[in-house]
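tl;dr need the bound structure. longer version: we got a ligand (nicotinamide-adenine-dinucleotide) that a collaborator sent over and nobodys looked at where it sits. i said id run it. heres the input, straight from their email, havent touched it
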Amino acid sequence: MRIAMIGTGYVGLVSGACFSEFGVHVTCVDKDAGKIERLKRGEIPIYEPGLDDLVARNVAAGRLSFTLDLKEAMAGADAVFIAVGTPTRRGDGHADLSYVYAAAEEIAAHLDHYTVVVNKSTVPVGTGREVEAIIRRSNPNADFDVASNPEFLREGSAIGDFMRPDRVVIGASSERAADVMRRIYRPLYLIETPIVLTSLETAELTKYAANTFLATKITFINEIADLCEKVGANVHDVARGIGLDGRIGKKFLHPGPGYGGSCFPKDTLALVRTAQQAGSPLRIVETVVEINDARKKRMAERIVAACDGSLAGKTVGVLGVTFKPNTDDMRDAPSLDIVPALQAAGATVRAFDPAGMHEAERLLPGVEWTKDAYGALEGADCVAILTEWNEFRALDLKRVKALLKRPVMVDLRNIYNPGDMAAAGFAYSSIGRPAEPKNV
Ligand SMILES: NC(=O)c1ccc[n+]([C@@H]2O[C@H](COP(=O)([O-])OP(=O)(O)OC[C@H]3O[C@@H](n4cnc5c(N)ncnc54)[C@H](O)[C@@H]3O)[C@@H](O)[C@H]2O)c1
């Protein structure tokens, strides 16, 4: 099999590399000449564990290559995947489909044999049909079908998620297209991965339903955490107590500063707009979006409160700025709300992140970036943990205490234990847990 992958971002590059590992010949195309140059030199433009080895191995085997030229990539391809960005459109919350539609126009110009045009980007219901219409208009004689194959990988564990997914969803507009998709995913059929074969519209909606459900689950446990604080309960025990119920499940029940990242914020908003437009509003998701936005903004207040109600002239040491560990992705990270709010309250912010600082420098002006976690704490009035990177989980607390002006820690990811922190002499606050655990 031979495929072209349009877009070498977090999804396109990982999917392309993983398909090549399956034995498919993959040519990845991007408009960004800098990215393609780096990839050709063997450099990986994003931080994703294991991706460098996977890419190097498949490039060496001759199954994976990179180009700026879509015509070259589509020559002899059984399918061309669209994996370009679908950010929030400015002003109205709808998904911005301009990159997807531009890719469809470009594909139309190079279709010279039967090819399946596969949408891997997260796109609202109806986009696949629109892609089909664009190609038909532009190249009426083209021999093609459109398929939808939404991607469920998570940044930070993207390769494992792609190679051993819980399921693959394929929306196909013809049996011929479904057959090509089955052949591309053959290695997953062999490991008995469930394949949900459905219509274009259903596949498109399934992706949004999955992401908005997960965002709802996070928001639910965040609100339960707030209630725990008021009534003296422990949110982790509540999460375990409910999560062990197979109908609920343990995952996505970890409280925090609100969901962020490149998918949940834009996808919840886009589905809200789709549903409103269809005259079938999703009131639950509308509320989730509202609660989450307000939550991210409120997190800075916790840090102010931990610093005796004022940050004027104080320094906050921030650990982690990416929306989650093991990625350099800064899109919609809670830090983008929290850090400016701290600065607006008069604080100097000194911060460290293992992978996100390069991107964050541009997005968070005025922050003093340090070489390691301890550098961010030197002379600070308080430390705030915003991302649960592994290297923040076992800090040398004696050293932390010695570096800080006062031993104050605000842990928005609950990676420390309140009892241990109290014993170590910290004024410690976290999410949804009593400061001193009771009955333990
Ligand atoms: N990031 C994730 O974890 C994730 C997970 C599942 C689904 N998705 C979805 O996948 C899609 C892609 O997301 P991403 O995070 O990989 O985006 P990204 O911004 O990292 O990458 C998109 C790439 O497409 C390139 N591009 C845009 N138009 C192009 C064109 N016409 N020709 C060639 N290249 C073009 C850009 O230069 C960029 O490199 C989105 O719809 C997103 O919602 C993302």
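gonna send this back to them w/ a short note. The chain has a mean pLDDT of 96.
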